[in-house]
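Regression test case RT-17, inverse folding.

Input:
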């Protein structure tokens, strides 16, 4: 279908976009029915780790691909660069908006300042930000999730699966967003079996130190927890989580993935038998839904939240050993129903 332009922009040709973006991260674009500005749609700018993290960023890309296929327009996805500033991020978003992409989404809380600045400069473009970084603006959608709810269910799964009564949590960076994952996981473990010990660890204090982008750091942390008898390790660490999964596989213990169904990720295929489940949040759906709202002429704005009730956070059932364990599935089902009904209040910190 041909996209109807909803904004009037003045900009350079597509080649100029590539040139402008080369200074603030690589980009890839794909054409729909035309290369004119009227046929430009969704653009996303990746968080630390970039495309190929088998997790958060790849889920956003899946949403972009769905929008591109359905709406037949041109899209763009832009990689981060090492050591970039908020100003660099803002320029990236501004470049996309200037070329006529709409909506423009920053993937990750680190884009908060950049989204706010770009949204002020382009009030007729819809911007989105994925994760807990509320940006109050009339043309911004805050795509947030109840990660603590899925993490609670991961805690139930861990407590039901451990044989040593020790489980681990590896968080990428010591920030409030990752505290939600840890809090829900620990609560789920303890509610299921108070005798189970939870070892929790953050890889770094800041994202710039590589907490979300260093599989070696994740592997070392998981190995340390496994040495302390942890036989289920849950990682909320972006690309660093791959190292956690690798360590779990090498030591024949369980790993719990995050954000995407990591059992199905091609890059993790050789480790998949060690991935018990994944605490998922449907970033792809959130990204696609924002694009659809713009395409329909009714752009979503404000806080757009996904939780267990909406189905946008969940546990994956891809591993047959997990899916076929009737007792484990019943425990998770019961916990899920109690969370949705409000009987269980899941902590976020």
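Golden output:
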């Amino acid at each position: 279908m041909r996209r109807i332009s909803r904004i009037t922009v003045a900009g350079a040709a597509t080649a100029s976009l590539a040139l402008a973006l080369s200074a603030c991260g690589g980009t890839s674009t794909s054409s729909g029915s035309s290369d004119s500005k009227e046929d430009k749609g969704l653009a996303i700018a990746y968080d630390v780790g970039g495309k190929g993290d088998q997790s958060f960023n790849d889920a956003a890309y899946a949403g972009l691909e769905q929008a591109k296929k359905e709406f037949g327009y041109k899209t763009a996805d832009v990689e981060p660069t090492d050591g970039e500033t908020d100003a660099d991020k803002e320029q990236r978003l501004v470049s996309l908006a200037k070329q006529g992409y709409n909506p423009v989404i920053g993937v990750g809380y680190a884009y908060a300042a950049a989204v706010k600045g770009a949204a002020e400069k382009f009030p007729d473009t819809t911007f989105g930000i994925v994760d807990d970084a509320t940006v109050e603006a009339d043309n911004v959608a805050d795509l947030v999730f109840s990660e603590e709810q899925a993490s609670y269910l991961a805690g139930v799964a861990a407590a039901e699966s451990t044989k040593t009564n020790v489980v681990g949590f590896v968080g990428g960076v010591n920030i409030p967003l990752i505290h939600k994952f840890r809090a829900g996981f620990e609560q789920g473990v303890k509610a299921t079996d108070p005798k189970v010990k939870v070892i929790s660890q953050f890889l770094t204090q800041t994202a710039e130190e590589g907490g979300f982008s260093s599989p070696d750091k994740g592997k070392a942390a998981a190995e340390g927890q496994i040495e302390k008898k942890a036989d289920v390790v849950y990682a909320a660490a972006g690309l660093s989580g791959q190292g956690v999964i690798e360590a779990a596989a090498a030591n024949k213990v369980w790993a719990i993935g995050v954000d995407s169904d990591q059992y199905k990720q091609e890059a993790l295929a050789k480790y998949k038998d060690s991935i018990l489940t994944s605490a998922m949040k449907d970033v792809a759906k959130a990204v696609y839904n924002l694009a659809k709202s713009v395409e329909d002429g009714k752009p979503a704005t404000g806080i757009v939240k996904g939780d267990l009730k909406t189905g946008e956070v969940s546990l994956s059932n891809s591993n047959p050993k997990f899916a076929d364990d009737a007792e484990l599935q019943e425990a998770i089902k019961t916990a899920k129903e109690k969370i949705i009904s409000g009987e269980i209040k899941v902590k976020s910190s």
